[in-house]
Amino acid sequence: MVVHCNLVKQVTLWFQVCHSLGGGTGSGMGTLLISKIREEYPDRMMLTFSVFPSPKVSDTVVEPYNATLSVHQLVENADECMVLDNEALYDICFRTLKLTTPSCMDEMEFTEAESNMNDLVSEYQQYQDATADDEGYEYEDEEELQEED
């Protein structure tokens, strides 16, 4: 375990966390995970891809509260936060990708739209990484990475 942790400390320059701030898991557990990673690796960059809730596609009334309470943790522990709008993701799925209205196949399975929304966020993450590589962001160590900020 110690060897594995030392390897993570030597190799990892930053952490990326993708989560939704509307539900309890993404907002509560996600921000707890971010704060614990920050405690364990204070010298590493923390990037988040945070999907914020929207009133038009809201499932529950507590989504705005979950998001509001999570923002403080993001401000304290994330170095960079990519803000994604849930309504915009739905619009891309339905208008651009021409998906039909989602229907639940099973309680534990993603609907077609949710699966495609996850794919969209994943593509955005890959785009951000590729853009950083194309612009020549190669760092010898974490001090150089921190100096860029």
TrEMBL record:
Q: Where is this region: Disordered?
A: 130-149
Q: State the oligomer form and interacting partners.
A: Dimer of alpha and beta chains. A typical microtubule is a hollow water-filled tube with an outer diameter of 25 nm and an inner diameter of 15 nM. Alpha-beta heterodimers associate head-to-tail to form protofilaments running lengthwise along the microtubule wall with the beta-tubulin subunit facing the microtubule plus end conferring a structural polarity. Microtubules usually have 13 protofilaments but different protofilament numbers can be found in some organisms and specialized cells.
Asked if GTP-binding is a keyword of the record, the answer is yes
Tell me which Gene Ontology terms the entry assigns under biological process.
Answer: microtubule-based process
The record's similarity note reads:
Belongs to the tubulin family.
Species in which this protein is naturally found: Lupinus angustifolius (Narrow-leaved blue lupine)
Q: Where is the composition biased (Acidic residues)?
A: 131-149
Task: Using the record's annotation, list all stretches that form the Tubulin/FtsZ GTPase domain.
Answer: 2-136
Q: GO CC annotations?
A: microtubule
Q: What's this protein's function?
A: Tubulin is the major constituent of microtubules, a cylinder consisting of laterally associated linear protofilaments composed of alpha- and beta-tubulin heterodimers. Microtubules grow by the addition of GTP-tubulin dimers to the microtubule end, where a stabilizing cap forms. Below the cap, tubulin dimers are in GDP-bound state, owing to GTPase activity of alpha-tubulin.
User: A GO molecular function for this record?
Assistant: GTPase activity
Q: What is this protein called?
A: Tubulin beta chain
Keywords from UniProt, A to Z, are: GTP-binding, Microtubule, Nucleotide-binding
What Pfam families does the database record attribute to this sequence? Tubulin
